[in-house]
Design a protein that fits this description.
This protein is of the alpha/beta class and 262 residues long. The protein is 52% helix and 16% strand. The strands form 2 sheets. A 7-stranded parallel beta sheet has the order 3-2-1-4-5-6-9, sandwiched between helices. Strands 7-8 form a two-stranded parallel sheet. It binds NADP nicotinamide-adenine-dinucleotide phosphate.
Length: 262
């Protein structure tokens, strides 16, 4: 059987680095993102450098039927997905009432709904084989309310809760679920979200995509349920547990308030 790692959002940032990490560990890949040219470029880099099998599928994962299309593509080509990496996602920065409704809706579809659907579609085969891994991209933002990134934070809180619940349901089955919760990471994410030099992103320390991807791989392989790269962010997640929510949301609001939001 042609066992594969499926990675969404594999053409840039954390997803691209994850593709390289998996390929270095001799895993065959199926890479998914929207831009066919960027997909071809990422695949060629891996094929020429690491001589691993890489196949690609260009699809907009914010479309409601995208997950079914990805599953049909894998079935048609005989790929058995034993590792699913739900990485594709984007954010937006600013007051919710001035946000673009169509953009916020796409975000909910891509960051949360498609992740849930892909898990539902690929899990049964993993369970049949009693072997599989799911890595879902959440965020350090998932641990508290996220004023000025309200929809984005809610999608990442969904992923954290969903992944934890699945991990508990699947305990002892041979299938693990890991929620990766990075802090600010240098990628296209901030410019795509319109963050630039605003908010918490500009004051908190950043990681590189390579650091985050390598950490994620190690934790996923150990079956860790919640993986937070960096000691500072592990500490902040603990502090958040003991901080009254009214205080933490006011701190985040103060950090996130910027010229752009006044
Ligand atoms: N960077 C951070 O600070 C940070 C922190 C915490 C969590 N995260 C999470 O980490 C994940 C990866 O983000 P990143 O920082 O690596 O961002 P990035 O550099 O902007 O990469 C995003 C990837 O997702 C793909 N993508 C975007 N929209 C898509 C769509 N509608 N359908 C299919 N693919 C789509 C993009 O490719 P195409 O444009 O070709 O589709 C690209 O490959 C996201 O879920 C993000 O929320 C990031």
């Amino acid at each position: 059987m042609d066992h594969r790692v499926l990675i969404t959002g594999a053409t840039s940032g954390i997803g691209e680095q994850l593709a390289h990490v998996f390929a270095r560990h001799h895993r065959r890949l199926v890479l998914v993102a929207r831009d066919p040219e960027k997909l071809k470029k990422t695949a060629m880099e891996i094929i020429t450098r690491l001589h691993m099998r890489v196949d690609t599928m260009a699809v907009d994962l914010s479309q409601p039927d995208a997950a079914e299309k990805v599953k049909a593509f894998c079935d048609k080509n005989g790929y058995v997905i034993d590792t699913l990496v739900n990485n594709a996602g984007f954010g937006s920065f600013g007051t919710f009432h001035t946000s673009q409704l169509s953009n916020e809706t796409k975000m909910v579809e891509l960051n949360s709904a498609t992740v849930m659907k892909l898990c539902r579609l690929f899990l049964p085969k993993m369970l049949e084989e009693r072997h599989g891994q799911i890595l879902n991209l959440s965020s350090i933002a998932a641990f508290q309310a996220g004023p000025y990134m309200a929809t984005y934070t809610a999608t990442k809180t969904f992923i954290l809760s969903f992944s934890e619940s699945l991990a508990a349901e699947l305990h002892g089955t041979g299938v693990t679920v890991t929620a990766l919760c990075p802090g600010p990471t240098d990628s296209h994410f901030a410019s795509a979200a319109g963050i630039y030099n605003n908010g918490a992103f500009s004051v908190l320390p950043h990681s590189s995509t390579q650091q985050v991807a390598e950490y994620a791989y190690r934790k996923m392989m150990r079956g860790k349920v919640i993986a937070i790269p960096g000691l500072l962010y592990q500490f902040l997640a603990v502090v958040d547990k003991v901080t009254p929510r009214v205080i933490s949301r006011r701190i985040v609001a103060a950090l996130q308030r910027s010229e752009k939001n006044r």
